Amino acid sequence: MTPPARERQPWRDNLETAAVAIATALLLKYFTLEPFQIPTGSMQPTLMGLDTARGRPGTPGLQIYDRILVDKLTAFYADPKRWEVWVFQFPLDHSNRYIKRVVGLPGEELMLAYGDVYVRREAKQEWRIVRKRPDVQRSLWREVWTSKGGASGFWNATGFQQNGDLWEATGSCRLATVAPITDAYVHGYPGAVTEALRAAGYRSEGSSVVRDLRVRTAARPDAQHAALRIALDWGGDTLVAELSGPAGNGALRLLYNDRELARAEGSLRLGSRQEIEVWRADEAVGISIDGVTVLRSEFISAHAPEKFHPGFTTSSRLQISTEGGAITLESLAVDRDLHYANQVQNETFVSVQIPENHYFMLGDNSVDSVDGRFWKQRLISIRSPQLGDLKLTGGMMTSGAQPTENPRPGRSSDGRIEGRIFRDIYGEEYAYREDEGRLASSIPTACQTVARDAFVGRAFALFWPVPPVSPVLRVGWIR
Question: Smallest Cα–Cα separation from 278: which of 216, 229, 236, 320?
Fold first, then answer.
């Protein structure tokens, strides 16, 4: 016997559909994808948490808070890789989530020297520099100067004639930078953001001289042009990219302190516009023409990392020279690499030993990032009639953009206890009188790494904001 058909109940069908949709969304959020809003500027300009009026009452503010997508599924089956950007539980306050770049891996000893990253596995080993993947390196170049609206006084010109976006040379001519290039805060932002930062008082000079630089231009030589040379000098390390013109020796060369590193046959083509890039990054140097790397070489700098000391400064200079005939350079620009600072305000960092199953995390906005360089634990013992005997672990930052005090002066939420308040790593606060607590360690202990099980997910895409809500488009992949 055929059972009777069930009477349709639209309200029930809609309720079931909504319940399934909500359950699916919750499962997706918990196990696969979750959107996050970037709250601070520690990863700028890669990820923006910007408010130029913050802490500056009366200043017209520009606000850009990026929204990103985080892949949480990867955290269940794969370990974080170096240079990836991850969300994790903050080790000094598990109630907060931070986002930083993975720089150090389990079991490594890591050193920051000259703005770059060096690692070794054992104390008897020599330090080796860690080079970025090409896609990561390309995403981290920060524009310093461009002929399209760049500040005047950047170059000393001999023989070159500037005509708007064009730099024209005939015979032996030279461009040389006037001052060393430093890790200025305003580098690498879109034009509208750069102007807002400067209007808010952010300086155009940094505290450290940068050695990893890139020169970009479009070159158009005539038939008599012999050679174009681009030299990057840092503290006596001189790298030269030499590109033959149509009337030259027919060779492309890379030299380090007058020693030839690499050579290939080739010349700049007569009359045609060719996009040229010459770069130095992570003790490697290269030449690209029309987006293709034609020469690349690695070298060992004369400045050994083990001889680095905080506060080290040196000179840097870019020089562009021409020989024979005429050449026009269009859209000339200079970029710098991300430069990891060793000193921020009163705090100094040089090296760290990373425990097994832990990772070392840094922010891309190195001069204004509270990251693994400055995280510290503080232990406290409290004996109180109200709280009993407690041993607590909390966190503090003694430097960076947001130094904190823990414990701090304060009053309990009910107002009955006035003295000190200690915040533990779970976000709980404990109030006690001055005579009831003592610090178990007067010097904070290092807590500079993140445990593997604290990672939440890998950030992989930007999806907001977009114009006209924002003055700039913030959509793309995160490298």
Answer: 216
Give the span between the Cα atoms of 40 and 67, in whole angstroms: 12
Average pLDDT, the chain: 86
Q: Looking at the domain assignment, is residue 370 inside a domain?
A: no
Mean per-residue pLDDT, 398-420 = 70
Q: CATH number of the domain at 250, please.
A: 2.60.120.560
Does residue 365 lie within any of the structural domains?
no
Please tell me the total count of domains within the chain: 1
CA dist., res. 285 & res. 270, Å (int): 26
Read out DSSP for 21-77? HHHHHHHHHHHTEEEEE--SSTTTTTS-EEETTTT-TTSPP-EEE-EEEEE-SHHHH
Burial class for 223, CB neighbours closer than 10 Å (0-12, 13-18, 19+): exposed
Task: Give the separation between CA 263 and CA 242, rounded to whole angstroms.
Answer: 9
Q: How many CB atoms lie within 10 A of CB 96?
A: 13
pLDDT tens per residue across span 218-268: 999 999 999 999 999 998 889 999 999 999 999 999 999 999 999 999 999
Domain hosting residue 145, numbered range? 134-343
Extract long-range pairs of 79-85: CB within 8 Å, 24+ residues apart.
Answer: 79/452, 80/359, 80/452, 80/455, 80/458, 82/130, 83/132, 83/133, 83/136, 84/458, 85/43, 85/46, 85/47, 85/458, 85/459, 85/478
User: What percent of the chain shows pLDDT beyond 70?
Assistant: 86
| 322 φ/ψ sector (left φ>0, alpha ψ -120 to 50, else beta) | beta
Cα(459)–Cα(298) distance, integer angstroms: 30
Tokens for 137, please give them: 């390196």
- What are 419's strand-pairing partners? 410
> Which of 63-72, 151-160, 208-217 has the lowest average pLDDT?
151-160
In a domain, 198, yes or no: yes
Of 396 and 71, more confident: 71
Distance separating alpha carbons of residues 105 and 352, to the nearest angstrom? 11
Give which of 267, 203, 258 is closest to 236, Cα–Cα: 258
| Predicted structure pTM score | 0.87
Largest CA distance in the chain: 102
Tokens representing 162 are 């500037």
β-sheet bridge partners, residue 138: none
**Does residue 295 lie in a domain region?**
yes
Could you count the other beta carbons within 10 Å of the beta carbon of residue 398? 14
Q: Which two tokens stand for residue 106?
A: 């389990």
Query: Collapsing DSSP states into helix, strand and coil, what is residue 234?
Result: strand
